[in-house]
Amino acid sequence: MASQPIGSQAALRESVISRDAGSADELRSLREQWTGDFYNEGSGKDGPFDRLREECGIFGVFGYPNASSLCYYGLHALQHRGEESAGICTRDGEDFHYYRNMGLVKEVFDKDRLQSLKGSVAIGHVRYSTSGESKLANAQPLVFKYKGGDLAICTNGNLVNAPEIRKRLEESGSIFQTTSDTEVMIHLIARSKQPDIVSAAKEALRQVSGGFAFLIMTKDKLLVASDPHGLRPLVMGKLGNAYVFASETCAFETIGASYIRDVQPGELLVLDAGGLHEDRFATMQRRALCAMEYIYFSRPDSDLDGINLHTARKNMGRQLAKEAFVYADVVTGVPDSSISAAIGYAEQTGIPYEIGLIKNRYTGRTFIQPSQELRERGVKMKLSAVRKVVEGKRVVMIDDSIVRGTTSLRIVNMLREAGAKEVHVRISSPPYMNPCFYGIDTPDRKELIASSKTIEEIRQAINADSLHFLSKEGLLAAIGRPGQEYNRGHCTACFDNDYPTPVPDGSAAVGCGGCD
User: Fold this and answer.
1) How far from chain centre, in Å, is Cα 259?
2) How would you class 327 by CB atoms within 10 Å of its CB: exposed for 0-12, middle for 13-18, buried for 19 or more?
3) How is its cofactor bound, per UniProt (predicted)?
């Protein structure tokens, strides 16, 4: 089943733009911002928020009747990991059924669409583009025909050596259908001379480098793989006799599945008619689970390597209070990822925690800012200060990171405009100084404020009365993973430039956002 465009989007787009534009300049501006099927398609990288962008989320089912519905609910729980596109591919005997489109899970799938995706095996994906453009052709799962039949694949992560492999394959005759680095895996498998799909997948996995979690579906197997460093999270669970796989355990809670264990670095799991087979394509290298999963990306109700995210973030706030106490009247967190750390900071210091900032949850991708003035002050469309809470108060504002600094400046000024007497900023991570190459969309290094400014210069730039970042040692202690492994088994390259894998030559200043 081929993917189809979303209705008559062009007519809808022009209708809304014309309705909301008050002048010729505004009409031109809105048309520039809404160039695809939805407003700021492609993540809103130039929008008012300079947050780190979610990666992707994957969900797999093996051996469950009506697997597509289970996959739908799993993807819905992982929606925070990618809001650009969603897709599901199922297997009914040897036949594949798939659908993918731009938009949220609830926008892409309805009851009829899910009923058409028959089968007891399914893989699904929610995407935020890091490598590859934001367009329908790059939406996953990717589905291809090759000498062994149909093959579907989806991934969370990024292959740092994909450009050089792609160039080599194209020079030898391969024709690529997408700009996604995930397609490299398809070509490596298809060109392999190995006698079976498992051997071909192992050979392909050994050729790619980076952070990745793969789900690969064939006519009779489901393959599950994690990179040798375990950079991207991937967990396994069971629902009755069915196996399920997800980027986060929160998806298991949604469907009522039981968590079994994390998929180990370098592991290859093979599921077929004979059940689950545990295998490896590589030995585990230096363990390096992404620290930003604990700080920001994963949902607070998820567990990573047995550690609850809400608890870890509260510990970060407690540690931050120990490292950078300040006399204040209230503590508040920037919604949503910083709330847990703010609670921890408040509990440690005894300063009351208050909801000083409110997030507007109804300014999704299709929101059209109605005037030039509001476009310039766009942060207030997504976030508001609670005046009666902060007015006349010394406020400690907890956030998880500072990327470019523009959002922090706007929020500090918003609190001041609401009457805050002082605004002290505390960040529950070290300064974010280096781009990520493993599946997080980050700006060029030169755009990361901490790469070129001292903490005092950043404080001045964001108009805060004081500023403090959590130390790297404090962060790792707060997460609480055992200390025997190097870096306690985390990747902290974004803070210390210590990448667990080689990164491409000449790319030291560009993150995944520049890998298109």
Assistant:
1) 21
2) exposed
3) Binds 1 Mg(2+) ion per subunit.
Query: Residue 73: is it exposed, middle or buried by C-beta count within 10 angstroms (0-12/13-18/19+)?
Result: middle
What tens digit of pLDDT does each residue of 29-71 get?
A: 434 433 443 333 333 343 434 556 556 999 999 999 999 999 9
> Rounded to whole angstroms, how far apart are CA atoms 286 and 440?
20
CA distance 378 to 50: 12
Per-residue pLDDT tens over the stretch 276-303: 999 999 999 899 999 999 999 999 999 9
- Indicate if 56 belongs to the active site: yes
Tell me, letter by letter, the H, E, C secondary structure of 208-241: CCEEEEEEEECCCCEEEEECCCCCCCCEEEEECC
pLDDT in tens, 264-274: 999 999 999 99
Contact (CB, 8 A) for 436 and 494 = yes
Q: Which of 56, 71, 250, 512 is catalytic?
A: 56
Q: Give every CB contact of residue 358 below 8 A, 6+ residues apart in sequence.
A: 335, 383, 384, 385, 386
Dihedral sign for Cα atoms in the order 362, 364, 367, 372: positive
Q: What tokens appear for 30 in the block? A: 């809105």
* φ, ψ for residue 42, nearest 5 deg: 105, 20
| Cβ atoms of 344 and 318 closer than 8 Å | yes
Kindly state the tokens that stand for 188.
Answer: 């490596």
Could you tell me which of 45, 44, 51 has the C-alpha nearest to residue 405? 51
| 109: nearest Cα among 252, 4, 242 | 4
**Nearest of 423, 409, 408, 410 to residue 328 by alpha carbon:** 423
The pLDDT tens digits of the residues spanning 327-350 come to 999 999 999 889 999 999 999 999
Q: H helices within 262-349, ranges in order?
A: 291-292, 309-323, 339-349
Predicted TM-score of the model (pTM): 0.86
Dihedral sign, Cα of residue 514, residue 105, residue 237, residue 291: positive
**End-to-end CA gap in the chain:** 27
Length of the chain: 516
β-partners of residue 244 are 61, 237
Binding residues for Mg(2+): 337, 399-400
Average pLDDT over all residues of the chain = 85
The phi and psi torsions of 259 (rounded to 5 degrees) equal: -70, 135
